[in-house]
Amino acid sequence: MKRRVVITGMGAITPLGNSAEDTWAAALRGTCGIGPITRYDASAQRVHLAAEVKDWSAADALGAQESKHLARFTQLALAAAREAVEASGLDLDAMDRTRAGVSVSSGIGGVEETENQQTRCLTRGFDRCSPFYIPMGISNMAAGNIAIAFGLQGMCTCPVAACAGGSNAVGDAFRHIRDGYAEVMVAGGTEAAITPLSVGGFTTMRALHAGDDPSCASIPFDARRSGFVMGEGAGMLVLEELEHARARGVGIIAEVAGYGVTCDAHHITSPAPQGEGGARAMAQALDDAGVTPDQVDYINAHGTSTSLNDSCETAAIKTVFGPRAYEIAVSSTKSMTGHLLGAAGAVEAVLCAQVLRDGMVPPTINYRETDPACDLDYVTEGARRMPVRYALSNSLGFGGHNACLLFKKWEG
Prior knowledge:
Blueprint (H helix, E strand, L loop, with lengths): L4 E9 L6 H10 L5 E2 L12 E2 L7 H5 L1 H4 L4 H17 L11 E6 L5 H14 L8 H5 L3 H10 L5 E2 L7 H14 L5 E8 L4 H9 L28 E9 H7 L5 E10 L12 H14 L6 E5 L6 H15 L7 E3 L2 H4 L6 H15 L1 E2 L22 E2 L4 E8 L3 E9 L3
Parallel strand pairs: 4-5, 4-6, 9-10, 9-13
Antiparallel strand pairs: 1-7, 1-8, 2-3, 6-7, 8-14, 11-12, 13-14
Helix pairs in contact: 4-7, 8-14, 11-12
């Protein structure tokens, strides 16, 4: 018999707020987290908008000394993990830390450090590179630093799967507990890639929206959509084996019920026709949980605001759910947060857990013009109060990576 896995703690730092609950409240208000880039001077580039974390200081959150030699993506991850662990009420000294681990994704890792050190070394010589560059820059260091901070000695890993990575991290941690290898996992994703090179790279491949009006920038499923908006942040979950959580008498937020993961094996950036790979991932997640399509009430869509993603994802949902697709509430919270790359699936997992807990569905904001290829119920009128039994979260990444998580309302 498969072991059950529940969520007992959550943390988030996003363009909408500097905690999981602040992010949730802003999402229900339909807040747009997008604005002019302030992380660097973007005046010479075509893209001037991003979804930045606001009014947050690593020194204040982590301490000046501790944060000094951590890249921004690790700083965000560590702060969100601290929130999640504190919320879970884990007694770290009383638990077997060899049965607790970390699974945290980042798509690009410390790209800001790479840019900074490259600039420095071109003038000073490459043997003058900072000795902290490698341990700050490599993508697994967010996971590693979380393990060090809490003394978690089980599996510590960093799935790197572009925009699907955050969901892979949560799904892999779910399986690790369910299959008996751990009782507790800190799982999530983090990204801090609002940098000249990252923005320039996505711009030249025509993936980013290039306008200057935040209300028209990230508009998933809208006929006017023209690319995604780069975001930054981190989302973390404490996943726990059900009986371990019950023994602690801790409050349970939601249950992780299923996980599907596939590859398009089609193209480096474009999804497979009709979202075939994404459809298989959704179907796998349902099958993994033993859930039928009529039991799903909400889908947090990948919904990037790119032409191909949104139409292919809509087609994939129809493939899996048939006529039922038109009865499911579907929203893209990227309309508010922008695209957090390797952190996206993790932040959206936090939001799905809150949907199930509170019976509220966040909206897709700034939707105005219907696209015939995108004709589902995208919750465009504002947050919607409704009962949700199961919530599905889709993440679809460059390279053809598809990951889908299914969450269940906790009913005791």
